[in-house]
Amino acid sequence: MDKTFNNSLLGQYHEDIFKYLNEFIYRYKRHEIEFSALLIYSNNQHLDLEPIEKNIRTSDKIFKLNDNIFLTVFDVVDYLGGLKASQKIEYTYKESYPHCKIFYAYATIHEKESPYDIVTRLFMALDYAVNESLPNLVVDHVMIRE
Question: What is the structure's pLDDT at 119?
Fold first, then answer.
């Protein structure tokens, strides 16, 4: 498995992801508007946006970090709503790329957490999915064994 994943990719994109989430974090802190995020990664395949675009609302956002890493933000959604949307995207990618290993990390904003916490949880979940070889499964921090 790609053991360089944690050190190289996570550090490279941490600030970019935080920057993309900043608007949503502000709205959550100011108005308590919930959001969830899905980080999608393929270590051997360039992905297109169509499977994501087919499964999100116009209020949701997609950020392309590179050809095989995307961040999707589900606006005004709680944990279960965002998880369901994430699973729809995962299912659509599975149909579009049946032989490709695609990894998914999911997180939702929690009360009284630092803005960096959601980014950290996304990276923990993605690192876990990659290193435990859990492709084609939406992983969140609850699934990670200590």
Answer: 86
Bridge-based pairing of strands 61-66 and 138-140 is unpaired
- Asked if 73 and 60 count as a contact pair (C-beta separation under 8 A), the reply is yes
Assigned token pair, 128: 């876990």
What is the number of other CB atoms lying within 10 angstroms of the CB of residue 79? Answer: 16
CATH class of the domain whose range is 5-143: alpha beta
pTM of the model: 0.89
Q: Identify whether the C-beta of residue 65 lies closer than 8 Å to the C-beta of residue 22.
A: no
> In whole angstroms, what is the distance from residue 24 CA to residue 91 CA?
26
Q: pLDDT, tens digit, for every residue of 41-87?
A: 997 778 888 889 988 999 999 999 988 899 999 999 999 999 999 99
> How far apart, in whole angstroms, are the C-alpha atoms of residue 122 and residue 119?
5
Residue 86: name the closest of 68, 101, 71 by CA: 71
**76 — alpha (psi -120 to 50), left (phi > 0) or beta?**
left
